[in-house]
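Colleagues,

For the teaching module next term, I've prepared a clean inverse folding example: a structure given as tokens, and then the sequence designed for it. I'd like students to try predicting residues themselves before seeing the answer, so please don't circulate the second half yet.
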């Protein structure tokens, strides 16, 4: 039974870990730490967490904690993941786990005997396997839009790992990895940044795999909420709308498959909670004695591409 400590008294930790853990008898949340001790105390009281550490280092040193779930601003993830791994803890980090390959290498060097997991809740959904089975894939078009950046949030500040690209890149890259593979992929990106601090608010990314599959992402802030994949196959076109829905609750998804003659088939997937499924995957991985090398390779691929394509100014174009 893993006993978790939380670095970050956050809403995402409540949705992704605390809530799903209430429905299990093999997971306990035993401690929390935040940048403000009194906020951590209030958070612990609200969520029934028995211990509050005075700071992040104190939580890492707590012998009651087996695994640490980290949800901070993106630029802080790597440091605390590495420090937790150096202390012999299993580490689960909200996406993105880090911002470049050098950070990733330092984390895995520290975690030779423990697990390091990037929390991407859409990973492993049954639709990904179903898409792989349809046929010869030619193109993937993805559109993601969030209504707005929260005022005052780290997402407004590039130096803290803010901006729309880092918010959505892990979802997109994991999906591409699952259905087409990322090894050897090359690409380019362009973005527009607005606001006082210059975080990117619109991003377009184009990747091509060695097998010739083209993948494009359009991500933006300030419009109607959207999360949609369109998969173009040799003999069919497949649309998946609202692929982030299972992160909002136990909700269904549908693949709409249109063949060359215009005939449509709907492949439905029953209601599921992405966060409950993610916690189940985490618990299974933590039950194995050695780190999952395939998972580490997959994470390394995503981190490398994300770093190469990440916005670094008010308007830019980059190639990977």
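(Answer key — instructors only)
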């Amino acid at each position: 039974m893993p006993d978790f400590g939380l670095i970050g008294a956050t809403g995402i930790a409540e949705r992704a870990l605390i809530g799903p853990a209430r429905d299990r008898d093999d997971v306990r949340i035993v401690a929390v730490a935040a940048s403000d001790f009194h906020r951590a105390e209030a958070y612990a009281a609200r969520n029934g967490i028995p211990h509050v550490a005075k700071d992040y280092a104190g939580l890492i040193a707590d012998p009651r904690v087996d695994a640490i779930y980290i949800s901070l601003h993106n630029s802080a993830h790597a440091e605390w993941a590495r420090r937790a791994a150096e202390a012999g803890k299993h580490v689960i980090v909200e996406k993105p786990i880090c911002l470049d390959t050098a950070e990733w290498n330092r984390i895995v060097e520290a975690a030779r005997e423990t697990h390091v997991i990037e929390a991407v809740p859409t990973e492993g959904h049954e639709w990904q396997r179903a898409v792989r089975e349809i046929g010869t894939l030619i193109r993937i078009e993805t559109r993601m839009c969030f209504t707005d950046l929260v005022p005052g949030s780290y997402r407004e500040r590039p130096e803290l790992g803010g901006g729309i690209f880092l918010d959505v890149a892990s979802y997109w890259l994991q999906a591409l990895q699952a259905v087409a593979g990322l090894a050897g992929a090359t690409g380019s990106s362009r973005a527009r940044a607005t606001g006082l601090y210059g975080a990117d608010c619109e991003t377009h990314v184009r990747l091509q795999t060695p097998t010739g599959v083209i993948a494009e992402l359009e991500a933006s802030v300030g419009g109607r909420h959207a999360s949609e994949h369109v998969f173009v196959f040799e003999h069919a076109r497949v649309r998946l709308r609202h692929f982030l829905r299972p992160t909002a609750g136990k909700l269904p998804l549908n693949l709409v498959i249109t063949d060359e003659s215009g005939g449509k088939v709907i492949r439905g997937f029953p209601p599921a909670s992405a966060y409950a499924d993610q916690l189940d995957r985490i618990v299974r991985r933590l039950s194995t004695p050695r780190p999952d090398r395939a998972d580490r390779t997959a994470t390394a691929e995503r981190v490398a591409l994300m770093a190469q394509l990440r916005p670094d100014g008010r308007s830019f174009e980059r190639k990977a």
